[in-house]
Write a structure and sequence with these properties.
The protein contains 19 helices and three strands. It is globular and about 65 Å long. The protein has one domain. Helix 1 packs across helix 15, helix 6 packs antiparallel against helix 16 and helix 10 packs antiparallel against helix 17. The protein has 413 residues and is mainly alpha-helical. It is 75% helix and 4% strand. Strands 1-2-3 form a three-stranded mixed sheet.
């Protein structure tokens, strides 16, 4: 960590290690505040969100007063996300994947339809409030489903077409979506569970579905056993990254690295069930995944710049508020019923709010917060990441391009 004064602003520069250390402290602070403020625990607000939000307001004060600022190195953020999705894959047996077969297809269709509705809302509301089509679409599926990456890419294209504020609007909309995603997802899932008296299905509990799990047998892991479990996670991450690169080259588009890692991990998990290559411990792997996810989100939120939301003025803000309201209402009143009005359906609705407004990790942290309080939904934890991370793009990308070509004059993409 270094300190310097730039233009009368005291600047604190945190390297990658210090960034992770600060994120871990904020994570623990989030757990502490959540344990003391019962309303946060009651409505399943994730601890990383609480700690990250507190720090966001600190940096916002520094920016507004012009007295201090922070710069961070988020180098470890992507590896943390990659590690988390790898542990998700290692926690799945083919039997569990079979159970989610039909529901996966249904959920995939729902997620794609939601992205279509978001673009319709953006264009329709944008026209009513006099908002240019590029800004309306940047406030729709591009930023809500595509996140900061898609917002930056399309924002740059629109800027070249003469819409100078497009990059700022895209970044602000994606930030608004990420914050909204982790604020509404948990409460939606919690409300559905409480209202309908739903309970987790113990038959889906991973510890009970698969025999030979150390946590269930009571076996104590040796240091070598722990190292083998960690080594498998790292190898799946490495091989999965290569697989994603191959797939991306083959299909001619970017393919998320963590999807490849998750699929490789599923294969390794089930291969080990048959060959018994090492002593797999679900409790250890699941714990590592929880830590990786929490640190990822803590870094993501603590590095957000709250003042970027100043770009959300007038019609853009109206469109975004409509997007959030739509997601809450459609998840609560429609999607929950389509998915069967079960405990799994409630948890998946919290996940849908996460990746349809923010990003796939937001979906996972929403579902994790619900699972911690009401019980595990293994089916939801397998289906939602697969759809949110990649499958939804197959529907979202083409129809978004159609909207742009139809409503943005001069677009040649």
């Amino acid at each position: 960590m270094t300190f310097e004064t730039l233009g009368h602003v005291f600047t604190i520069n945190a390297n990658a290690i210090m960034t992770v250390a600060m994120a871990s402290v904020l994570l623990l602070l989030g757990y502490f505040v959540k344990s003391k403020v019962k309303v946060l625990e009651k409505y399943c607000i994730p601890a990383p969100v609480i700690g990250g939000f507190l720090f966001m307001f600190v940096t916002f004060i520094g920016h507004m007063t012009g007295t201090f600022s922070f710069t961070f190195d988020s180098y470890f953020q992507s590896p943390f996300m990659l590690a988390f999705f790898t542990t998700v894959g290692l926690g799945a047996s083919f039997e569990l994947l079979k159970k989610g077969g039909v529901m996966l297809l249904v959920y995939w269709f729902i997620a794609g339809l939601v992205s279509l509705c978001q673009n319709i809302i953006g264009v329709s509301v944008g026209r009513m409030v006099g908002l240019d089509a590029p800004y309306a679409l940047l406030s729709s599926a591009i930023s809500m489903v595509g996140g900061h990456g898609a917002a930056a890419a399309y924002g740059s294209t629109f800027e070249e077409m003469g819409f100078a504020s497009a990059p700022l609007v895209g970044a602000a909309a994606a930030t608004f979506g990420l914050i909204s995603a982790v604020m509404v997802g948990g409460p939606v899932g919690r409300r559905l569970i409480v209202k309908h008296g739903l309970k987790a299905d113990p038959a889906q509990n991973f510890d009970m579905d698969v025999s030979g799990i150390n946590a269930a047998s009571g076996d104590k892991l040796s240091g070598l056993d722990v190292m083998k479990n960690v080594a498998v996670i790292l190898l799946c991450m490495a091989v999965g990254t290569m697989v994603s690169e191959w797939i991306g080259t083959w299909i001619g588009m970017s393919f998320p690295t963590y999807v490849g890692a998750m699929f490789v991990a599923v294969l390794v998990r089930n291969m080990n069930e048959s060959l018994k290559l090492y002593k797999f411990d679900f409790s250890l792997v699941d714990g590592i995944g929880d830590v990786m996810l929490s640190l990822y989100l803590s870094i993501a939120l603590m590095t957000l710049k709250l003042w970027e939301l100043s770009g959300l003025i007038g019609g853009v803000l109206v469109v975004l508020v409509c997007q959030v309201v739509f997601m809450v209402l459609v998840s609560y009143f429609v999607v929950f019923r389509i998915l069967g009005k079960s405990y799994d359906a409630a948890v998946m609705c919290s996940g849908l709010c996460g990746h349809s407004l923010g990003a796939t990790p937001s979906a996972i942290v929403n579902m994790t917060a619900v699972n911690e309080q009401y019980g595990m939904s293994r089916r939801a934890m397998m289906i939602v990441p697969i759809v949110g991370a990649f499958l939804v793009d197959i529907i979202y990308q083409p129809q978004t391009i159609w909207f742009i070509k139809t409503f943005v004059q001069g677009y040649a993409g």
